[in-house]
């Protein structure tokens, strides 16, 4: 008999970042009670929902801050070709991202230093360890 199990929600992968939080026993107990009573599928579901609710609650202030700080919102990928084009044009890039900034794996530390003047990421930065080290003094 063929399996008819369908995954409702993809497993955490490349689009998530793991964090650790400390909670008091009573707060944790309340979360477990709500999970047990079927309001949430698990602790993670509760915490994600709570975070999303707080983000939505402060959405207007966040939008104003994103605009004021001139941040790219979401996923911003910088390829080797992007950086080479900036280098050819004599431009230095200022990476300002709220979400995920990724620098391609084929970007060398020398190319990154030659083309990236500053890095400010609210969220996560994905780059090789060598590129991150080369940009450490330019990262806020």
TrEMBL record:
Pfam family of the protein (one): RHH_8
One GO term of the biological process aspect: regulation of DNA-templated transcription
Organism of origin: Roseicella aquatilis
Span of the signal peptide: none
Name used for this protein in its record: CopG family transcriptional regulator
